[in-house]
Design brief:
The protein is of the alpha/beta class. 33% of the residues lie in helices and 18% in strands. It contains 10 helices and 13 strands. Helix 1 packs across helix 6, helix 3 crosses helix 10 and helix 5 packs across helix 8.
Length: 348
């Protein structure tokens, strides 16, 4: 009697466990998102950037031995006795640029050029997981992007020991910049400039699926989040988000992110905590016509931390306009040069 009493519950538990494993297996194995139509405004805004004078790629070695790519822009200054501006050997301000999701450093070229001509040196990264930096769409562990930044900044600050540093991020790069501001590396930068940044999927600034820019595999994401909370990281290299890029561009853009990559490109859970922990001023700039975020939603999303952040909405600009349109370039230059206390001239 006693043995039969335990058989039924054990059998039921075994059946439920097997079903749970099968469901998890199906979600993990087949839970990919559907292909998206190309978001032309993002593609066209990227393709129209004039790259004729774009610097060549340089490389630095991260702690795991992988070469990661970046572009160097000198700070040009104009001496009274010289007609043409000359590159400065010791710039007073250095900006580190982080590109949007799926892209690479060349998407930041218009901004890099404008800041360079305005007297700011730039180091524009190909973030690990993009183009010439590591495996496309994936990283080894959550936190690796911060480790890369720490390695990169150690080199950059050695080369520019007296300069002030600004971190400027666009889109998902802005989300990563905010994550850095609120983390252990926050004190390495003197200012943070976030251009139409990703904050959170449930923030007031977030359009559903970023206005058609991305598609999330929700069942797979939920399963991986559950496993993550259980400290089980076996499947975090699986794809959970794909982007609305042209099939023809898959050789130059990243079509999807893994779970761990997606999570590392975002602010920490509770993005307001990142703002509060930031030791430096955070500036958020958005364009009124941004098709991936609700521009007017940034002020609402950050309303409880306005003592730590400034929010500005510029008329007319869309998402790519944040790194290409003249008004934004002038605004970013002005906010950057405030660190050295000089009057600014509009970008040329």
């Amino acid at each position: 009697m006693g043995k039969r009493f335990w058989v039924a519950p054990i059998a039921a538990f075994a059946v439920l466990a097997i079903l749970a494993v099968l469901v998890l297996g199906l979600v993990i194995g087949f839970g990919t998102s559907d292909p998206l139509p190309v978001m032309r405004s993002i593609r066209d805004g990227t393709m129209k950037i004039d790259r004729a004078d774009m610097p060549r790629l340089s490389f630095f070695t991260a702690r795991d031995g992988i070469l990661l790519a970046y572009r160097m822009y000198p700070a040009f200054t104009r001496a009274e006795d010289v007609d043409a501006p000359q590159p400065s050997a010791a710039p007073s301000v250095v900006a580190v640029l982080l590109h949007r999701a799926s892209a690479r450093s060349r998407s930041m070229h218009a901004l890099g050029r404008a800041l360079s001509q305005g007297g700011v040196a730039e180091l524009s990264l190909d973030i690990r997981g993009h183009w010439d930096s590591g495996v496309h769409g994936d990283i080894a562990y959550i936190g690796q992007l911060e480790d890369d930044m720490e390695d990169f900044l150690a080199q950059a600050k050695k080369n520019h020991p007296d300069a002030k540093f600004v971190l400027i991020g666009h889109g998902a790069g802005g989300g990563l910049a905010l994550r850095i501001a609120g983390g252990k590396l926050g004190g390495l930068f003197d200012r943070y400039v976030l251009l139409a940044p990703f904050l959170s999927y449930n923030s007031a600034s977030q359009r559903p699926e970023s206005g058609g820019w991305l598609s999330v595999s929700t069942p797979r994401l939920l399963v991986l989040r559950l496993l993550d909370r259980m400290h089980l990281h076996w499947f975090e290299g699986l794809q959970v988000v794909s982007f609305a890029i042209d099939q023809a561009d898959h050789g130059i853009l990243v079509p999807s992110y893994s779970y761990r990559f997606m999570k590392n490109m975002q602010p920490h859970a509770g993005y307001l905590g990142d703002v509060r922990r930031s030791p430096a001023l955070v500036l958020v700039i958005a364009g009124q016509k941004d098709e991936t975020f609700f521009a007017e939603g940034f002020a609402a999303a950050l309303s409880s931390v306005l003592s730590k952040v400034q929010v500005r909405v510029l008329p007319g600009g869309d998402h790519m306009g944040m790194v290409t349109q003249r008004a934004t370039l002038d605004e970013v230059l002005a906010m950057t040069l405030q660190l050295r206390g000089v009057e600014t001239q509009p970008a040329q």
